[in-house]
């Protein structure tokens, strides 16, 4: 059996700060040969954590699909298994996330080869720094 080598890796991180928690996410898509294809971050504010994780995942998957990637690895600092492998109709989903969850399942099933991993090391640290920059931009606007 040959080793799985993804065309691109979608790296995701959700950052929470303060009380109550204000959330931001960061995403990079790294191509095996071309390096970073997409780098994005977004400040969300007061949102449920699951909403922030879902939005980050949907953004990353959507960008990889837009870039016509076939072999995808998704790495995150939060658990992805429940979002990508659970039966959507069988789990309890808040009403606002049901459509997004169905969209995630549709995009995920469109990739030819896929793998889920944990995000660790320097890539995770870089995404944390990117997410923190989303807070800084928000602070400067206020």
Helix coverage percent: 40-55%
The separation of the N and C termini measures 55 Å
**Major sheet strand order:** 3-2-1-4-5
**Number of DSSP helices?**
4
Identify the quaternary structure here.
single chain
Radius of gyration: 15 Å
Helix and strand element order: EEEHEHHEH
Mean pLDDT: 83
Largest sheet: 5 strands, mixed
Which stretches are low in confidence, meaning pLDDT under 50 for 5 or more residues running?
none
How much of the sequence is in beta strands?
25-35%
Number of strands: 5
Shape, per Cα inertia axes: globular
Secondary structure category? alpha/beta
Summarize the helices and strands and which ones pair or pack.
Layout: E1 8-17, E2 22-31, E3 35-45, H1 49-66, E4 71-76, H2 81-84, H3 95-109, E5 113-118, H4 121-141
Parallel strand pairs: 1-4, 4-5
Antiparallel strand pairs: 1-2, 2-3
Task: Tell me what you see in this structure.
This protein has 142 residues and is an alpha/beta fold. Helix content is 41%, strand content 30%. The chain has a five-stranded mixed sheet, with helices on both faces. α1 packs parallel to α3 (95-109). It is globular and about 50 Å long. The mean pLDDT is 83.
Q: What attributes does this structure have?
A:
single chain, 142 residues, alpha/beta, 4 helices, 41% helix, globular
